[in-house]
Amino acid sequence: MTMVVGCAAYEDGKRVADFSIDDVPKFRRGKGRFIWIGLHEPSEELLRKVQRLFGLHDLAIEDAHNAHQRPKLEVYGSSLFLVLHTAQIQGGKVEFGETHIFVGDGYVVTVRHGASSSYTDVRSRCESAPELLRKGEDFVLYSLIDFIVDNYPPVIDALELEVETLEESVFKDTFDRGSIERIYDLKADLIALRRSVVPLADVTTRLMRFEVSLIDSDTHPYFRDVRDHVVRVAESIDNLREVLTAALEANLLLSSVQQNEVTKRLAGWAAILAVPTAVAGIYGMNFRYMPELEWVWGYPLTLLGIGGICGYLYYRFHRAGWL
Predict the structure, then answer these.
(1) How many structural domains does the chain have?
(2) What's phi and psi for 184, nearest 5 deg?
(3) Parent domain of 297
(4) Which of 88, 107, 133 finishes a domain?
């Protein structure tokens, strides 16, 4: 079935057999001997078959089939069930997927949904280090989590380049409505990415506790290293969110300054134009007895007075930086 990406048996850190799901019962599992199965968007029928093979919990199977869960770690007796979110840049947008991992005595089952890289590289990397793979199922679990966390920084780097471009455009004329919309899209992607990353810190911390008997103390340093990576990724996400918020605030401040400049210019010119308007209004009232109407120099003196006042106002406004 195409939904089965890989199904192999391992003994003493080495790959010893490849077989189909139906042949799994033929392999005797025990200390140092486990089966690693990789599934991609399996049907409910296939998941039920895997459930019967390893005695998986009904609730875990239901979660793995629905594939709309938050990142978490569930302990069912002596087995573990993990939900992890994956992220990839596709078409300039962050696409998210889910990976469900079942780990128990003698088996590791991964179920991938949505945007996610194949775990073939993880399998190859583990097989190239038999001395580490000899640790068993917990090392495979570490490798899978580490691979997922390592795929977050490239996504953040891609977003960081776009954030830097937007940040530069704030102080240029290229910042427009589309830039603001893109900032809000990036903030939404970063929030979704943070929801995928932050819970992993709690997951890795729980894996290092003694309540999870399946995890040997020898692998605790590996999970501690993953937790450090998770914390760094979360800090990078928070930093990008702060930069985007600062970019929006800077844009608002610049827009406010620009509006103030326009307002001051309009106010200055309005004050200058108010002088001839007021004079014209006074002499346009058409009263019969207006002494100035009979003066020979009345008209030129009025124009000269208007020009002088307007010139003085322009000088003062220009000196004050309004014009």
Answers:
(1) 2
(2) -65, -35
(3) 264-320
(4) 133
Q: Give the Cα separation of 192 and 96 in Å (integer).
A: 9
**Encoded tokens for 67:** 């594939």
Residue 291 lies in a domain: yes
Q: How far apart are the first and last CA of the chain?
A: 77
Question: How many Cβ atoms from other residues are within 10 Å of residue 312's Cβ?
Answer: 12
Using the 3D structure, point to which of 90, 115, 133 is the last residue of a domain. Answer: 133
Residue 199 identity (one-letter amino acid): P
Residues 84/112, Cβ–Cβ less than 8 Å? no
CATH number for the domain including 269? 1.20.58.340
Q: What does the longest C-alpha to C-alpha distance in the chain come to?
A: 123
Give the Cβ contact number of residue 289 at 10 Å: 6
Distance in angstroms (rounded) separating the CA atoms of residues 263 and 269: 10
Main-chain dihedrals φ then ψ at residue 246, nearest 5 degrees: -65, -35
Whether 114 is in a domain gets the answer yes
Walk across the sheet containing 14-18 and list its strands. 14-18, 4-11, 33-40, 107-114, 93-104, 79-90, 72-76
Domain-located, residue 12: yes
The pLDDT tens digits for 17-67 are 888 888 888 887 777 789 999 999 888 899 999 999 888 999 999 888 887
Question: Is residue 89 classed as helix, strand or coil in its secondary structure?
Answer: strand
Give tens-digit pLDDT for 243-294: 888 887 777 777 777 778 788 888 888 888 888 888 888 877 777 777 777 7
Q: Is the dihedral of CA 78, 131, 208, 60 positive or negative?
A: negative
Cα 104–152–190 angle (5° rounding)? 120
Rounded to the nearest 10 degrees, what angle do helices 137-150 and 220-282 cross at? Answer: 20
pLDDT band at 1 (very low <50, low <70, confident <90, very high): very low
> pTM score > 0.85 for this model?
no
Paired sense of beta strands 107-114 and 33-40, if any: parallel
CATH number of the CATH domain containing 49: 3.30.460.20
Residue 13 covered by a domain: yes
